[in-house]
Amino acid sequence: MTDAFLHASPDERIALIEARLTAALAPLSLTVRDDSAQHAGHAGAAAGGHFTVTIVSAAFAGKPRVARHRLVYDALADAMQRGIHALAIVAYTPEEFNESSI
């Protein structure tokens, strides 16, 4: 994925992230936002994209925030090495998401 990610358009990068997270975590809901434009000119901005992931998955049940983030990072491991400079993660279980939507 790394070379494909580096040479991908912004929309293709989002699709690659979505595909990886879907395969690894079977999310009930997944939103990936490219925040790279907000970081133009900042140190490190040229080294890769900035993204925000909001994901709802049963895989997060019983896991603390750090473990949930680790699952997301593991699914994107090679892109984190060379194609993603920053990743903000909001990770819910289905129950937490339903409670937050009330």
What does this structure look like?
The protein has one domain (2-100): BolA-like (GMP Synthetase, Chain A, domain 3), CATH 3.30.300. The chain is built from five helices and three strands, in the order ααββααβα. The protein has helices at residues 2-6, 10-25, 65-75, 77-82, 94-100, and strands at residues 29-34, 49-56, 84-92. A three-stranded mixed beta sheet has the order 1-2-3. The longest helix has 16 residues, at 10-25. The mean pLDDT is 88. This is BolA family transcriptional regulator. InterPro entries: BolA (IPR002634), BolA-like_sf (IPR036065).
Give the topology, please.
Elements: H1 2-6, H2 10-25, E1 29-34, E2 49-56, H3 65-75, H4 77-82, E3 84-92, H5 94-100
Parallel strand pairs: 2-3
Antiparallel strand pairs: 1-2
Strand order of the largest sheet: 1-2-3
Supply the number of structural domains: 1
Structural class: alpha+beta
Overall CATH class: Alpha Beta
Which second-level CATH architecture applies?
2-Layer Sandwich
The total beta strand count reads 3
Looking at this structure, what is the CATH superfamily? BolA-like
Strand content: 15-25%
For the biggest sheet, the summary is: 3 strands, mixed
Q: What's the gyration radius in Å?
A: 14 Å
Helix content: 40-55%
Which term fits the overall shape?
globular
Low-pLDDT stretches: none
- Mean pLDDT over the full residue set: 88
Write the element-wise H/E pattern from the N-terminal end onward.
HHEEHHEH
Give the termini separation. 38 Å
